[in-house]
């Protein structure tokens, strides 16, 4: 069999050569990049068979690219995507599939509360909406329709009739702290029981860290009472066996002693110990103003995100054997954190709660 005659690209100018080199350096489309390299190598005198061998493509592909470039120039380097075969499932049917996926299956008289791709596929075929469809096709249809597989979360709406006023008051304290005092966020963290706590850690592949399971816990629980100073960003805490009004008042007295000449604005939730008569009387006599959150709106308390970090970095993945050991771990983390603390500013920027007409009272 005779060897086919060699095919070379037409003579190219210096400007065209520079353009081909630039495409070879910057092209993001792999097809355009490959075609430009073929043309450039052919212009350098490489035979089609050698180019095909070096680029691991067929010689017919190389000749086709060269012929196309000779006929159409640089336009031949751009791929002309045909868009693939026509869709077997129309856009109308796809929209119906997305709508069904949104529905609770029980509304359709089915005996389950959530869809799987297999159950959704069986339902679509049984109702005649489609003759047949694969689970992977369903996955693509739902993705293109803006539907994703998500975990269910709970939320609690606030029933506080003064929600708006309390929200604006707290945001104002965060944004514009009073010049005559200091704003502190106070809350309780716990209960602090002794148990192995699940967590995440870097480990060798297939060598997960294991913690023992415990069923008998005889050392009781403790509670942490804490305050976050917005001016410095530092946290102050007590760990006590109980969290009664007596313990809460003890924390307030310690805060009062730390800043004796300033009025304290304490943002706290509606726990009964915070509203105890002895607590209110002491606050009124000692320049301490209790600023209560709206009901079911603990997310407004800035200290909550600090508690989340404390749980993640100091407790998750641990198995403390005594309260003293656990208390020491908490104390070490808070000291490390306070050493790097910065003033707390710019609470929830861009959030809907910043909108003047915000009425969705949900946490």
Automatic annotation (TrEMBL):
Domain of life: Bacteria
One Pfam family here: HTH_32
Domain Tc1-like transposase DDE residues, every copy: 182-319
GO molecular function terms attached to this record: nucleic acid binding
InterPro entries in the record: Homeodomain-like_sf, RNaseH-like_sf, RNaseH_sf, Tc1-like_DDE_dom, Transpos_IS630-like
Annotated signal peptide: none
NCBIfam families: transpos_IS630
Protein name: IS630 family transposase
Source species: Catellatospora chokoriensis
């Amino acid at each position: 069999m005779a060897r086919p005659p060699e095919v070379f690209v037409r003579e190219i100018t210096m400007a065209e050569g520079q353009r081909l080199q630039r495409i070879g350096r910057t092209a993001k489309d792999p097809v355009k990049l490959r075609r430009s390299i073929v043309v450039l190598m052919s212009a350098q005198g490489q035979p089609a068979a050698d180019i095909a061998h070096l680029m691991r493509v067929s010689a017919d592909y190389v000749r086709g690219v060269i012929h196309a470039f000779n006929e159409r120039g640089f336009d031949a380097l751009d791929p002309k995507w045909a868009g693939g075969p026509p869709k077997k499932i129309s856009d109308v049917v796809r929209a119906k599939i997305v709508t069904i996926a949104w529905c609770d299956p029980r509304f359709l008289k089915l005996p389950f509360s959530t869809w799987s791709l297999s159950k959704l596929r069986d339902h679509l075929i049984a109702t005649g909406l489609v003759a047949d469809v694969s689970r992977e096709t369903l996955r693509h249809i739902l993705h293109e329709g803006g539907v994703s597989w998500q975990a269910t979360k709970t939320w609690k709406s606030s029933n506080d009739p003064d929600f708006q006023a309390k929200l604006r008051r707290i945001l104002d304290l965060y944004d514009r702290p009073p010049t005559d005092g200091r704003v502190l966020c106070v809350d309780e963290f716990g209960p602090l029981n002794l148990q192995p706590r699940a967590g995440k850690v870097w480990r060798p592949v297939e060598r997960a860290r294991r913690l023992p399971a415990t069923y008998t816990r005889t050392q009781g629980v403790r509670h942490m009472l804490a305050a976050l100073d917005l001016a410095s960003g530092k946290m102050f805490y007590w760990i006590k066996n109980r969290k009664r009004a007596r313990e809460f008042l003890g924390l307030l007295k310690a805060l009062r002693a730390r800043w004796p000449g300033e009025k304290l604005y304490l943002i706290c939730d509606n726990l009964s110990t915070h509203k105890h008569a002895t607590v209110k009387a002491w606050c009124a006599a000692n320049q301490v103003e209790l600023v209560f959150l709206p009901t079911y709106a603990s997310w407004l308390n800035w200290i909550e995100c600090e508690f989340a970090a404390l749980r993640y970095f100091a407790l998750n993945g641990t198995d403390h054997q005594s309260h003293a050991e656990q208390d020491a771990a908490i104390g070490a983390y808070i000291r490390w954190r306070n050493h790097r603390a910065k003033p707390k500013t710019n609470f929830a920027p861009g959030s809907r709660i910043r909108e003047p007409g915000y009425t969705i009272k949900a946490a």
